[in-house]
Amino acid sequence: MVSLDIVRGVAVLGILLLNIVNFAMPEAAYVNPRAYGGWHGADLVAYLINFVLFDGKMRGLFSFLFGASMLLVIDRAHAAGRPAARVHFARMAWLLLFGLAHLWLVWRGDILVHYALIGMIAFTLRGMRVERLLALGITLVLANTLLFATMPLMVWQLSHPAADAAEAARNADALQSLVSALGVPPPAEIARELALYRSDYATILADRFRNDLATPLGALLFGGPETLAYMLFGMAGLRSGMLRGAWAPARYRRWLLVCWGIALPGYVALAAYLVASGFGLFAVALAVLTLAAPLRPLMITGWACLILLLARRGGPLAARLAATGRMAFTNYLATSLICTTLFYGYGLGWFGSLSRWQLYPVVALVWAAMLLWSQPWLARFRFGPFEWLWRSLARASLQPMRIAPPQ
C-alpha cells in the first residue's frame, strides 16, 4: 500500500534525526542539551527544531504505521483463510528475537523488542470500531501523561529540605539518579561513558549485558501505554481510510490545520520555557516528559496528513520514499550498523567528537544512502533482506525473493 509505504519511509528517515544523538553522545544528551554536545548557537537551534518538530513524532509516526500494518497483515490472513493469531504471533515472536539481538549485540536504543511486546497486546484489540480505538488511545495517552508527571513531582519533592540527615542522604541519591537521566551528569559519569563507547566491541558488549538486559521491561512499564495508544491510532487510521490515502484533500488539510494549530504553539511555548529555565532539571522533567505527551499525538497526526497530502503529487522522491518505507526494517537495522561503526571505538571512534549540529551532515549522508539503494534493490527483489528473513522465519519456509525478469 503506497500511502503506508511513503509515510513509513518518512518515519524511518526521521527517526535517525533523534537516534543520531544516542549513537554519537552520552545518553543524557538526548533529553538535555546541557549534558553534552553544546546548547548555544547552532547546537541550540538543532535541539529546538528537533524538540518542536521531530522528537517523539517520528517514533510515534512509526508506531502509527506499525499498528496499521499489523492490522493489514491480520486482515489479509483472515481473507486468505489462514489463522490470524498464528500469523501475528509468529511475526511478533521473531521480531522480539531480532530486537533482542539488536539490543544486546548492536545498539542500546533498540525499539523492536518494545514493538513486538506491545504488538502482542494490540492484537487483542483488533476488532474494535474506530471510535473505540480512538477513545482507548486517548485514555492511554492521558494515563501515560499522569505517569510521566511523577517525574517533575519527584524532582520537586526531592529538592525540598529533608526532615533529618538520613532522609537528606536518600533524597540526594535519588536526585542524583534523576540528574544523570535528565540533567547534567557529573564529569566523571560523562567520562566513563565516553571511555566505554570509544573502546573495543568486547568491552561495550560486556557493559550491555551487565546493564541493558532489563531495558525492555522498563520501556514497557514507562512508555508502553503511549506506544499502545499510537498503535491503536494507526489501526483507526487504517480502518477510517486516513492512512490509506482515501480521504479528500480538504479533509487532510483541515485535520492538519487543527492538529498543528493546537500542538505547534504548545511546543513552541515549551521550547521557550526550556530556554528561559536554562534547561533546569525540573523544567526538563515537566516540559520534555510531561507536558509534551498530550501534544504529541496531534503533531503525529498532523505529520501523517501533511505527508499524505504531499504524496498525492507523486514523482521520483515519493517513489524513493515508498521504497525506503517498504524496506523500513532493513533500513532501521542498517542505520544501527552504519552509525555504531562510525561512532564506536571498534569502528571510526567518533563518539563524543562532534557537536550537536555537526551530527546532521552525517544524517544527510545516511538518508541519501537509504533513498538511493532501496528503490534499485526492490526493482530486483520482492523484499528487503531483513524483511525477507523475517517473513521466511515467521512462515517457516523460504519465501520467493527475486523478481522474475519480464519475458
From TrEMBL:
Residues 239-395 form the DUF418 domain. Pfam families: DUF418. It comes from Sphingomonas hengshuiensis. The chain crosses the membrane at residues 6-24, 89-105, 111-128, 133-155, 213-234, 255-276, 282-311, 332-351, 357-373. PANTHER family: INNER MEMBRANE PROTEIN (PTHR30590). Keywords: Membrane, Transmembrane, Transmembrane helix. The keyword Lipoprotein does not apply. This is DUF418 domain-containing protein. InterPro entries: Bact_Transport_Assoc (IPR052529), DUF418 (IPR007349).
